[in-house]
Write a structure and sequence with these properties.
The protein has about 375 residues and is an all-alpha fold. It has 18 helices and no strands. Helix 4 packs parallel to helix 6, helix 5 packs antiparallel against helix 6 and helix 12 packs across helix 14. The protein is globular, with a radius of gyration of 20 Å.
Amino acid sequence: MVLAVGLLGLTAGSAAQYGLAVLIPALRTEGLSLETATLLVTAPIAGVLLTLIAWGAAADRWGERRILALGLAFAGLAELAVSTVDGLLERWLFLFVVGASSASVHAASGRLILGWFAPSERGLAMGIRQMGQPLGVASAAIVLAPLAVSGVGNAFVALGIASLAAATLVWLVVRDPARPANSGGPASVSPYRGPFLWRIHVSSGFLVIAQYAITLFAFDYLVNALGWSIAAAGALVAGTQLTGAASRLAVGWWSDIARSRLGPMRLVALAIGIAMTILSASVYLGTPLAVGALAVAAVVTVMPNGLAFTAVAERAGPRWAGRAMGIQNTFQNVFATLAATPLALLISAAGGGASGYALAFATVVVFPFAAAVLIPAASEKPQP
């Protein structure tokens, strides 16, 4: 039950943090440019960056339950506030608060996995927990995009209700795992004295660039470059995200069987590089394979997150897990934020057609291959 409610909280948070890209077509009908709409829907990520590590430290100190509930409650109130304003600055500021508040779900829900599950179960459990991100994006495609047709504010009302409901369930159901006594010694030593965690953080940041390029622009590519309807594009995006959620389960189970998180993560990174190469070429050539390549890339790019988070939590240990997962998420969101606007500018500079999206997808191909080289698989300790 704790895992299910943690998954629900992460799904609600991720819908607001990473699912708002499905609102880009609706925002463009309001007169916003692609670059401006991109800046608005990435405002929650800017908020996430500000508070991730602080939320992680708070979870380490005060426990997961209250941190999860508090963050989701504030996010829900901010989402309801977004629905009441029309100005670009006001919307951006409230969405920034949404991200800053809902960032609590990343550190606190991950700590629950470390505390409640044995090492032989954590890969699968973290895979279930990490399903929240693609499920959030899928929910946004199914629910928010149609609601936004009659007004973007309707989408934010739905988000607010979902976040407040998740906060209530967390408070009623979640129980914090037992904490080890603080006796000092080796367990109190920072895990950041060596390069192991830093290499995972940077390689995860490289991988999230490809993931975010798909998350941010797939829906707009289908609607504005290929002429798909909102409903059809939403169905495809939701289907790929649901499949991606299942893939996180599969690779988590794989890592438990292999007793390794980083070996599978390296292989997935190589698969992402290949998928993005095929996608960019097929979109540029305008072949009928382009939509299929987009669907495959959307699934493959979401696969490695749970592996990285599990490896980080296990190396950091229970006293550092919240902060370490906060740093992990910070790296990912920094890389995603830095990539968003330049990719939008590339698309617009190429005229906003299929060639622009092909250029954006091609630009990120190098990062998964670089991540595969950087992942410290050889330094990983075998799981018991």
